Amino acid sequence: MELLTYLLIGAVAGFAAGLFGVGGGLIVVPILYIVFMHAGYGEAVTMHLALGTSLATIMVTSISSMLAHNKNHAVIWPVVGRLTPGLVLGSFGGAAIADALSEEKLQLVIGIFTLMVGINMFRTACSQQNLQQTQLINSRWHWLAGVIIGIASALFGIGGGSLTVPYLNRSGLAMQQAIGTSAACGLPIALAGAIGFMFFGAHEQIHIEHTIGYVHIYAFIGISFMSFITARQGAKVAHYLSPRKLKKCFACLLLFMSLYFLCKAVLL
């Protein structure tokens, strides 16, 4: 039953990863939090364990999504290369920050973050302005943007798509290109973040079976296996939708998850 749960989570998260260019963490984190709480892991480490495991699964999800988008020539590799150093540094540092925060503070921060990004994305999707930007990407900002996106991604257990997609879209990339490039950026974020959560979690002496630091191995295997398959299907669907529809769907997903985390943070 436990393995089936992880496989179902992976199926949904993988499809979302391919469709929206995110790592699937916006879905994986809250569901894993609920599963781990029912397993009796304790409130002190449950959120951290959900975040670390989510980042570990994104390593696999991002590869599948990246390959699918690359076939459609939607990954702008020079942009990925400029963002990567900052993404790696920021993601590892974000794991250290998350380790120092309590579960209540993490939920509050995640809720506020997703609410702000979701409102902004929905506002721009409903705007009458042309969604296709004409300005060139200013590469001078990529390193700094990578650091900020990396820190936020590790704190929220996501692949960074909720920040990377809007950033690249506003910098000049079409929505499909922003999603594809964001999918590729998810790999360095997830790799550095997962290593960070394993490293800092190992020092907390977590007494839970099948874990390495803040990463649950069984959950990682189950979710990764299924998400690798469904991410490609989501990526195919993304190229049949208009940029405006993609933005609205993406915004609705973020707004829903923000309400979940804010409610949890207030009720705890």
TrEMBL record:
The chain crosses the membrane at residues 6-36, 48-68, 74-94, 106-123, 143-167, 179-200, 212-229, 249-267. GO terms for cellular component: plasma membrane. It is a multi-pass membrane protein. Keywords: Cell membrane, Membrane, Transmembrane, Transmembrane helix. It is found in: Cell membrane; Membrane. Pfam families: TauE (PF01925). Belongs to the 4-toluene sulfonate uptake permease (TSUP) (TC 2.A.102) family. This is Probable membrane transporter protein. It comes from Snodgrassella alvi.
